[in-house]
Prior knowledge:
Blueprint: H1 3-22, H2 27-52, E1 60-64, H3 90-103, E2 107-111, H4 119-125, E3 132-137, H5 144-152, E4 156-162, H6 166-173, H7 177-190, E5 195-201, H8 206-209, H9 212-220, E6 223-230, H10 245-261, E7 265-269, E8 286-289, E9 295-296, H11 313-316, H12 320-327, H13 340-343, H14 345-353
Parallel strand pairs: 1-2, 1-8, 2-3, 3-4, 4-5, 5-6, 6-7
Antiparallel strand pairs: 8-9
Amino acid sequence: MSVVSNLFAGEIRVSLKTAAGxxxxxxxxxAALTKIAAALPKAERRRETSAKNGADVPPLLxxxxxxxxxxxCKGCYACExxxxxxxxxxxxxxxxxxxxxxxxxSVVLLAGGEPLLSHDWLNAMSxxxxxxxxxxxxxxxxxxxxxxxxxxxxHLIPLLSIDGNAAQTDARRGEGVYAxxxxxxxxxxxxxxxxxxxxxxxxxxxxxxxxxxxxxEYMQKGCRLFVYVEYVPAExxxxxxxLSKEDKRRLSDFAAQSMKEYAALFVAFPGDEEPYGGCLAxxxxxxxxxxxxxxxxxxxxxxxxxxxxxxxLKDALNSALLAKVRENHHLLIEGEGGCALWxxxxxxxxxxxx
Length: 354
């Protein structure tokens, strides 16, 4: 297991313990996170064993669970991926998560499309209580059945996507979406289910989202996890929305300061990757599974030379493409635009052709 993977896993370990302390008002959720934190040493040993056997296993797995969504948000990277390629078979979904757990993965990010439309991944993840599952949802489909499901599976935490205030969120996601998300937050709080928000941070909404008033408003609604995702210009013509280097520093500083001031967890993604010597994708810290089972460096790099439909996760992690990306991580230093891999797609094209 690489030094970089160890450092990143250490941050996950600290975050889990911090989160368990924050959620003392939610005993069942705190117990679930404490259990996962206690399992981290075993997961680290499994990754070390995997490394000795030739597999670079990251502590974090990102999954695009489905290409389906009930919304059509402006600038959504999932909408820009092009032609749909067919979902990973149901039985294989369960097998992949079993393999991930056995290899030492500790955290799984379930994204989409809309993950609440992906019954296979959700049901399979509900059986993996030694791994933390973060469900990135648009929040409009959180009915009584799903609320009961989250109440039963405390190792899975919903993160509701917003883009600032009502006008900013509706402008990107559709009229009335902000009101529906607010209703979902109220229902989660009434049900005693902790949740987080995922904020796509742009040059336009930084003033609205990176301030104490915004933080305190959502903490009063019950939010205990703030994930700030730097905007990536997947849609042509939106390049002006990306964060400058100064903006990125402001975001990083705000998250760090907020951790000191509030009883909540604040995460900037991808955040400051300089201590890791470059991009954490391709297995250095995380890796991405596409909805069709393609194993890719990250969600914003739809390049793959292997599919989990016919390859084990262990073997897929050793793909030639992922190895080449890891070897060239020093060329993927963050600048502007949220994602170095997205900015250097030409490099990825060359590596794929090789």
